[in-house]
Design goal:
By secondary structure, this protein is mainly α. The protein is built from two helices and no strands. Helix 1 (13-39) packs across helix 2 (46-80). The mean pLDDT is 90.
């Protein structure tokens, strides 16, 4: 179930949000690695940085996908008070 009316194709909004958070995590990690390399000596090679960034991005995306319903429910409960 995509959350869209029948007949309309598209990615599930929750999956899209998780993907975008994963992308933000990936790019943020790469920026931090590059910034550290500019200020000090590089910690890792670019290949290692890309592999670590993929792990960070996948973790951020999975975390966003798993936590979004809980956070939405929590926000709804706070709004009712």
């Amino acid at each position: 179930m995509s959350g869209y009316p029948s007949g309309r194709m598209g990615i599930d909004p929750r999956a899209k949000s998780a993907f975008l958070w994963g992308l933000v995590g990936l790019l943020s990690f790469l920026v931090l690695v590059q910034g550290y390399a500019l200020l000090a000596e590089p910690l890792v090679t670019i290949t290692q940085a890309l592999a670590l960034a993929l792990l960070v991005g996948m973790s951020a995306g999975a975390g966003a996908y798993l936590l979004e319903p809980r956070l939405a429910a929590r926000a709804a409960d706070r709004g009712e008070r």
